[in-house]
Amino acid sequence: MNFIRRHRKTSIAAIIFLSLFVIVAVAFGKYIRNIIQNYILETQNFYFNSSILNINGKHYSITNWDGVNSYPLTIDLNNRKSDDVYTKTDIVYTISVNCPSTVTCALSKNGDTIHPLDQTDSYTITVTPHQNFGENDTVTVYTEVTSSSPYRKTMSATYTIGVERSDFGYEIVDGVNEKYLTINFTNAIPFYEVETAFGDYAVGDYVSLDDYALLSPTDQANCYSAIVTITYDPTVLFVDMSNKYFVHRLSTGYVEQTINGHQWVSGFSFKVNASSSSAINFYKDDITQNYTYPIVNSTPIINVSVQLAN
User: Fold this and answer.
1) What is the CA radius of gyration of the chain?
2) What's the whole-model pTM score?
């Protein structure tokens, strides 16, 4: 005790160091133990994986929520190590989710079974607000999946979802072994702008939603709320040509590339209505890839630019 009194500062520093060392050692030990356990399971030909979840947990920060509408989180699961190596028995699993009382987190299902030949599965968490959220407010959502048969394995992820007020936003929803991805657009601009004069309207005039609804299709074509231009690698993605936004694409912004003597679409422009959402599907050349943005990838596989009415 006398030694501690004489060397009080040194003793306190030593205690803090030892405490931190124990905390780090315990956390690191758990990390290593999970890796070893997963290795042992794989030696038994048991594969239960996800590009989102992880045995040691993964954390994602998202800042494209408007704080008003529901926000979907899609999580993929699979029973494979490669195309030819996968679990030959059913994997039965359960799902749980935790979130603050300011939102509701609704699961698309509470559990399921991945059959050997299916190889993939997924579930969605729909986050719905119960209060008004302001700019930079956040909510934290934790989800966990645990297999019960033939072996037990737990994977988890934590999402920090932040509110960012934006007039226009987009996301890419995808998953491993999905045949196509979906890019979703949200236009929050509540009016239109005249780009070609008609009737009593001059270029640059403002057109409200109610007034726009009364215009003829020809006059509506002279207005815009958001003009979106997307470009992509046609060797990686192929647009669904039956989609209305491709069918009714603008003459400007349309780009083709010649590959092995054939013409492939690599970009086009289209209009998105005021205060609306839209979606376009793209088929993937490599279904083992997951192009989800911004949750999985920090850079989108599809380049997006937009001209907004103002």
Assistant:
1) 26
2) 0.69
